[in-house]
Structures are given as C-alpha cells and as structure tokens.
C-alpha cells in the first residue's frame, strides 16, 4: 500500500507540541513524516524514525510517551530501540523480532501456519510463554491470527480476515480450510463500526467514540472493543494520529478504501 507521506513544519504544529521544560525529548520527533494507518514505512524513513526514537528515549521520553506522540504502537518503538541496541531486550522482544523478520523476508508468508509454540520455544531457546507473548503482539498488529484449537497463521494487516473460513498452508505444504470463529461481540462491534462509517454516522476525518463509550453501548469491556477495531486500524479504515490528535478517527480516505477493497477485507 502506498503511504500518503507529508511533513508538517514545526512552525505550524499545535502549540502544545512545542517543547516545554522537562519534555525536550519531543524535539527529536517533531520533524518526522507522519504515516496513516495501514501504510508501510519506506526503509529510509524507518531509519529516520529509529534515530529519532533513540534520541528521544535518551532525552527522557518513555516508550509509551513516544508511541503516543507518534501515533504508533509501543511495539514499533520497542523494536526501533532494540534494533539500535537500546533498552532492555526481553525474551518476548527477541522472539517478536525474529518472527517479524521471518514474515518480512518471506520465510513465513500470508496463509502459512506457524509451528506450535512449544516447538518454536525449543528452536529459539526461550520459554513457551515468550513465544505466546510475541505472537500476541503480532496478532495485535494484524500480522498473525491465533485460531482456537488450530494454531497461528500469518495474516496481512491490510486485509484482515473477517469471513467464516480461513485458507491456510501447513508446514508440510498441505492446504486446509479452518473455520474462523471470531467472538460474537468482536464481530458485531467491528461490523457496526464499519456500517457507521459507510452510512456517515462516523464521518471521514471525525473522531469515533472512545473504547469505554463503545464498551458501555455494547455491554462489553473496553478490551473487547480494542480487539474489534484493531484490524480496522491496521487496514487503514480508522487511524490514531497520536499526540497530534488524541483518540481514534475515521481515515479521511476511508470510503474510497472501502470501495476499492475486496468484499471480505473489512
């Protein structure tokens, strides 16, 4: 997916983004090019992000603060620091980095079923829990999906699976069809949010209700709401500008993306 890259000069950024006493770490992030959700970062710009994140961390910014300011995941910030040799790298970080690299270099392709967590743990020399933690992070980013009673499959965050079945390829090369059972509340919330974008209840460029507000509406906990709308962020229907604008917003190009997407994309 091609990203809509643009740089906003610091002189026209909101005043609350300008450095204040005790917040000098923000200076290192102000000139980075913003990316909308669902867009890939070019290698050159990824290097810019890594350098800026390391400088911001050294200047006192926490991993959470940096992630919120950039509107990116904590995982993205953590991996940037880890790649640069900064911060404390845990077993989960180590496994996550390896699995991500395997997806990037094609060792694991979309539709591939991963080895069982115990097997991966033995191969990588880490506890099974570390593998499960890494997969959980990757699932949050839409890169993998764990299907209860079956296993974990590599997915494309730009086209998260929402149908009733999932076509997978096992380690032996065999093709299988797995029944896909999303939690009923997750599917209901995801469908409702998508419908509200289509009918204009949630207009393009406007903020949607908070996870807590939606949780109260649907009678679920906020974590269920986050699980429901996570893939909608990964594929670019929704996005979180971060500290530039707090909250979750409908992407300005959401309707055109819906029209050009496959029927099961969202």
Automatic annotation (TrEMBL):
Gene3D superfamilies: Winged helix-like DNA-binding domain superfamily/Winged helix DNA-binding domain. The keyword Transcription regulation applies. It comes from the Bacteria. The keyword Iron does not apply. Residues 89-157, 183-253 form the HTH gntR-type domain. Keywords: DNA-binding, Transcription, Transcription regulation. InterPro entries: Bact_HTH_transcr_reg, Tscrpt_reg_HTH_GntR, WH-like_DNA-bd_sf, WH_DNA-bd_sf. This is GntR family transcriptional regulator.
């Amino acid at each position: 997916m091609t990203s809509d890259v643009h740089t906003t000069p610091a002189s026209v950024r909101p005043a609350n983004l300008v450095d204040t006493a005790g917040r000098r770490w923000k200076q290192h992030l102000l000139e980075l090019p913003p990316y909308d959700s669902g867009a890939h970062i070019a290698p050159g710009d990824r290097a810019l992000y890594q350098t800026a994140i390391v400088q911001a961390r050294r200047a006192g910014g926490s991993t959470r603060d940096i992630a919120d300011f950039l509107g990116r995941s904590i995982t993205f910030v953590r991996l940037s620091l880890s790649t640069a040799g900064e911060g404390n790298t845990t077993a989960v970080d180590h496994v996550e980095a390896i699995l991500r690299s395997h997806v990037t270099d094609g060792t694991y392709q979309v539709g591939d079923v991963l080895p069982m967590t115990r097997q991966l743990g033995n191969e990588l020399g880490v506890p099974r829990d570390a593998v499960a933690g890494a997969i959980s992070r990757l699932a949050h980013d839409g890169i993998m999906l764990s299907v209860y009673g079956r296993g974990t499959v590599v997915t494309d965050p730009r086209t998260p699976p929402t149908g009733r079945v999932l076509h997978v390829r096992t380690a032996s090369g065999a093709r299988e069809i797995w029944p896909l059972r999303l939690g009923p509340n997750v599917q209901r919330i995801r469908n409702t949010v998508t419908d509200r974008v289509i009918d204009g209840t949630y207009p393009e460029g406007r903020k949607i209700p908070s996870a807590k507000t939606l949780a109260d509406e649907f009678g679920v906990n906020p974590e269920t709401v986050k699980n429901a709308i996570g893939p909608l962020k990964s594929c670019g229907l929704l996005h979180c500008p971060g500290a530039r604008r707090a909250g979750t917003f409908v992407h300005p190009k959401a309707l055109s993306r819906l029209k050009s997407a496959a029927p099961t994309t969202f």
